[in-house]
């Protein structure tokens, strides 16, 4: 008859040290992720603005081909004004821009010229 000796049983699970290390790593990664969110939002907003400008450049080009007339894209101080001014003095493209048919080729939005988009 054989006598079986009980094998030492190792309990499963994690030690307190292992759990604290995992929690510390998780907290660090969460802190890094949360601090990156404001920059992510700014970058997405900037990318959207750039894509809008590129779209209007392409619109101006296609309108030139379609109408066989010169078009212009220029910055303006107030693109939503009743008569928007496009004289090139505006210093900030963030205020808006105009795309219009420039019949006389002076790169200025004059009365009677067709405004394509603001």
Task: Please explain how this structure is put together.
It is built from 1 helix and 3 strands. By secondary structure, the protein is α+β, with helices and mostly antiparallel strands. It has a domain at 49-118. The chain has a 3-stranded antiparallel beta sheet with strand order 1-2-3, with helices on one face. The longest helix has 52 residues, at 16-67.
Key words describing this protein structure:
118 residues; alpha+beta; 3-stranded antiparallel beta sheet
Task: Summarize the topology.
Layout: H1 16-67, E1 71-75, E2 97-101, E3 115-117
Antiparallel strand pairs: 1-2, 2-3
- Lateral strand order in the biggest sheet: 1-2-3
Q: How large, in whole angstroms, is the Cα Rg?
A: 32 Å
Give start-end ranges of low-pLDDT stretches: none
Q: What characteristic shape results from the CA principal axes?
A: rod-shaped
- Nearest-integer average pLDDT: 83
Query: Main beta sheet: strand number and arrangement?
Result: 3 strands, antiparallel
Q: Considering DSSP H and I runs of 4 or more, what fraction of the residues is helical?
A: 40-55%
N-to-C span: 97 Å
SS element count, helices: 1
- SS class: alpha+beta
The count of strands amounts to 3
Tell me what portion of residues adopts beta-strand conformation: 5-15%
What's the SSE pattern?
HEEE
